[in-house]
Fold:
Amino acid sequence: MNHSLVQLSDPHIKAPGEIAYGRVDTAAYLREAVAAVGRLRQPPRAVVVTGDLADFGRAAEYEQLRSLLEPLACTVYLMPGNHDDREALRQAFPEHAYLQGGGHWIQYAVDLGGARLVAADTVVSGQPHGELCAERLQQIDELLAREPRTPTLLALHHPPFETLIGHMDEIGLRGAEALAEVVRRHPQVERVICGHLHRSIQARWAGTIALTAPSTAHQVALDLTPDADSAFMMEPPGFLVHAWGGGAPLVSHLMPVGSFDGPYPFHDENGLID
Structure:
């Protein structure tokens, strides 16, 4: 039997009635993404939202987020990004015990049934870039060491690799080499799944695959000029589906959000191509 973890990212939810940058109704986009998850032919075991849950980390934004995520039928795991406030997030979701038990940082591990999710907190309060101090790195190392034989997804908000989108790399994860040393000690890490970039980007990193998810709303403009302007595009939103089971290796699928015709058969009832 196959199982999956859906990764939503960077919804940037604002208070009811507010829109981002004067043009992006992030709540409407997340509502559509949640509906798209509900239409998946195989319901996921869980959903993880990899940061920038709210736009300014305000209580009203997290209350709006609660309402938007409510239709999801599976367990939902949250983690902060640089736009979030840890304490406001904890207060808005008091029943999410995993948010409460990691000390100052929001770091945790959960069993997904045949796979494992380990969430790491890369947030530097009040700053757009990410870091991992010695305390956080030690905790990540310990969480990974508890299940060395279970395929694991390590979730971060800030990606640990350069994307060549200059203005985003400037606010990426600093000191990623120390995390790479930790990950290399744990070959069960099948994926390092990240947000922050508002695009689907993949790289081989620290002996595994690291990748970012698209935003459920707006996407960072793809411009590899080192000094390109910071800008976003209204390209199609999406999410990732990380699937495993039946002895096959873990695979990751990009799913666009929207209404699309199909599915249509490739062959007619006689097995002939139309």
